Amino acid sequence: MVALVLASVLMANAGPSAFAAQPNASGFRALSGSAAANFTLPGDLQLVRRFALPAYGLTYERYQQFVGSAEVFGAQITLYRGGSGTVTTVIGSHYPNIVPTNAVGLARANAEAIAARDIGAAGTRLVSLMIDPASGRYFYRVETHRPDSRWIHWIDAGSGTVLKKYNALAYDCGARPQPCGFGVAYDDGDSNDIKDLSGLTTPSSSGFQLRSADKRQETHDQGSSRRPFLGPIATDADDSWVQPGNTSPAQPALVDAQYYARVTDDYFLQKHSYNWVAAGQSSQVSAMVIHAHYSANYNNAFWNGRYVAVGDGDGVTFREFTALDVLGHELTHGVTDFTSNLVYQDESGALNEAFSDMMGNSIEAFARDTNREPATTLTPDWFVGEDIYLPEKGTAAPGFRNMADPEEDGDPDHYSERQIGGDDNGGVHTNSGIPNHAYYLLVNGGLNASCAAPGTHNSAHCTDTVDTQDNNISVAGIGLADAERIFFLGFTALNQNATMCDARAATEAVAGTTFLQSTTDAWVAVGLTDMVCGGGGTPPPSGTTMHVGDLDGTSSSVGRNKWRATVTITVHDATHSAVSGATVNGTWSGGTSGSDSCTTDSSGLCSLTSSNINNSQSGVTFTVTGVTHASLSYDSSANHDPDSDSNNGTTITVSRP
Ligand SMILES: [Ca+2]
Ligand SMILES: [Ca+2]
Ligand SMILES: [Ca+2]
Ligand SMILES: [Ca+2]
Ligand SMILES: [Zn+2]
Ligand SMILES: [Zn+2]
Predict the structure, then answer these.
(1) How far is the CA of 170 from the centre of ligand 5 (A)?
(2) CB 530, CB 537: distance < 8 Å
């Protein structure tokens, strides 16, 4: 209903256009050409950010929709204006008829207190009143900044209920079979790798400090400690930063952090004419600040919304995380925060992660092209973390993510293979493989990696008969310079809860006539087809089967001598949407026995609690034996479990508390 109203307004104003996409049910649209030029900005949007991108002859303008003083979640529209002021592109979402369904009964301070009660008082908090256009509910978004976490709470502004919470701390690596982290080629014994710190240090009372003369970069020595992030700016008596070693106060990691932050800054300035430091001002970020030597044996790096922390690695799995694609990745999280502000969860989180990987490796190419690194120490590639992930160093496919072949590191290269829900905030470091591979294909051309080598990949999507648009489609590569422009402009313009289909449409809108076909093909090759994105054809059939989409267990004590287990079952249809009214049948074994059943609610969930079990039994097992539904049949072979705590969603063992 909402979408129909807006669509008719748009058509009346705009007329048909070659690349005009109608807003879909999410309120999203990506317009170019005459549809963009004739776009009328709705009156309830307010300008929140504007900056010039002279490299592209464009001005970026970002607008936020409000209902009264409440920001509408996901309702941001970005305009690009050309030199004459003409709007060339419109990307984002707007919801024309929001009807609030609750009243704001809670004060800001109460919302802060609720978050503090949940996670403790420490940290500084940002509170904004928002409204969810899907439910019409006002809520407070409470963001708690601490050095090593970044919790976001949504708190119902009427009832005070915590609607959702997640940690938006943006890591380089997610949950992987092996611990994840990043490093420096500096002390590889390569005497060519002497970095020129001209302009990157300044005199201080104790000699020199690792702060650039223009104050754009500063690197701190965390001294192997984790808290409280008071590591001072690194200093050196004679401005010769050559103390060897891997841990504080060794200087290779410090030098590389400072130097690579500068290369990253120069990349955004010179390639995209994007001023990272100026853009950060409105997010209370005044410089690129790196805390190196973070913690001890720490196998990761992260952006906490204010600065970057990089570990030294444990020397076994990882060396120091101060590699160029890692620093570039982390600092690109800043670009995302300052522009699209993509929510670090589920699909928008995967887009957020992918954009950091894309820019990180594009910066490697920039470093080569501008002679910032000798070729012996830096070869641009499509691996992520190749210089620091020690077990694969020197192999044919080093690093822990691979944009050219995501499955090589266990990540999906096709939308049909994505992780749905589950750990790592819904697989943000896993599903990033999908847009990462689209970017790779747009630059280099060719087939989806699975279709190029079907025998060694999950390649069902290359030969299926349901959606054939992506079967063995070959992309005509356009090279890095145009691809990085298209993805930079498209991704920074997205609204905060954009989907992968939205990202496809956004990049198409900025691609221009010459590159439109390749841009479309790159996304289609990774499964963002017309059928999936609703841009043509018919939506994929929801099918006639259902399966278990998650099995979770908890346990609790009963008196002194007994305990019991509760198992929660999620039922999905063939497209992994929740199925209500499904009856789940199963059996208990191990600590107790017998059969049991429950019927799923509107969220597709139902729970079963065992009878009381003696403490002499250490665990109990629940096995799903069947699922019945009025119109769907049970396909047990499709059962899955995003957090892997059960045996593929069919059997779960719950331990005594
Ligand atoms: Ca790389
Ligand atoms: Ca695949
Ligand atoms: Ca297919
Ligand atoms: Ca589970
Ligand atoms: Zn990241
Ligand atoms: Zn499923």
Answers:
(1) 5
(2) yes
Spatial separation of the C-alpha atoms in residues 26 and 98, rounded to whole Å: 13
Region 181-345: CATH code: 3.10.170.10
Single out the catalytic residue among 71, 218, 330, 417: 330
Active site residue 364: no
ipTM here: 0.64
Rounding to the nearest 10 degrees, give the CA dihedral for residues 300, 305, 306, 307.
Answer: 20
369-383, pLDDT tens digit by residue?
998 876 666 778 999
Assess whether 429 carries a catalytic annotation. yes
- DSSP for 30-58 reads EEEHHHHHTPPPPTTEEEEEEEEEGGGTE
CATH of domain 108-167: 3.10.450.40
Give the N- to C-terminal CA distance of the chain in Å, as an integer: 49
pLDDT (tens digit, 9 = 90+) per residue, 151-201? 999 999 999 999 988 888 776 655 433 333 222 223 333 444 678 888 999
14 Cα: distance to centroid of ligand 5 (angstroms): 39
Q: How far is the CA of 436 from the centre of ligand 3 (A)?
A: 19
Bridge partners (DSSP) listed for residue 334: none
Residue spans of the domains in the chain: they are 2-93, 108-167, 181-345, 545-655
Pick the closest to residue 572 from 345, 420, 346, 417 (CA basis): 420
CA atoms within 13 A on the CB side of 91: 32
The CATH number given to 545-655 is 2.60.40
Would the CATH topology of 181-345 be identical to that of 545-655?
Answer: no
